[in-house]
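Could you help me review a protein record that somebody else here produced? Here is the record exactly as it was handed to me:
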Amino acid sequence: MNTPSSPAPLVVAEPRLMRDTILAARRAGRRVGFVPTMGALHAGHASLVERAAVECDDVVVSIFVNPKQFGPREDLARYPRTLPADVALLGASGARWVFVPEAATAYPAGHATSVVVAAPAADFEGAIRPGHFAGVATVVCWLFNVVPADAAYFGAKDWQQTVVVRRMVADLAIPIAIEVCPTVREPDGLAMSSRNAYLSPDERRRAVALHEGLESAARHWQAGDDVALVEEAIRAALRAHDVPVDYARVVDPQSLVPPRPGAAAVALVAGRVGTTRLLDNLLLPPRP
């Protein structure tokens, strides 16, 4: 891993140079880890880079605010862009390269291809944000071609996204391992997210409702309550903090359909705190 005295990571904008650099490293026998991001990095992103640095010889991080995954009512221009701070954090975390393509490079004139992952992208975020996961899958597929690493690292906070990416990689036989790493949280349990910066002080206090709801769900799950009661426990916590609920569901972790009796599950929650949408989830162990 890099230390504060280590050289800063090399910033690369040109896809061909990025691809040639990664292929050269792999030909030299080096294992390359890849962390795709949209920038505005925080300790959660740093944990992904640090995990990749432990498991790989070299780490590359992409920073690309992907316009294809923003809906018509979502403010692409508002998304925070903090490249100098991001590069500094990545150097301290162990990244060797930072890939920062322009939108016109990812989507040149005449671009006409979209990657659609049907079943796992249909519900939850896919239903609320039509076209979002097509934007995610398309850019991640492009990134995996430009950055042909051995393994890619994603955070568990965006659970449905990890399911969509795994499905795409399996269906298209993309030769990269997908590693899903634990969610990093603030001391009060709020999942770290670039969107937390949008929250006012009062909204920030109320945002803990998502984590409280998941903890309540875990208690009900362990007590043997049925799925409807577990889901209601999540909604009740959000109502108590005046947080409108987009969804609160308990589903199979891989297929996102209702869980089988006795099997593990994942509790998914999304709510709106002020004008900011927040997501979180919690894995629930198998139970008798």
Q: What stands out?
A: The first helix runs from residue 15 to 27.
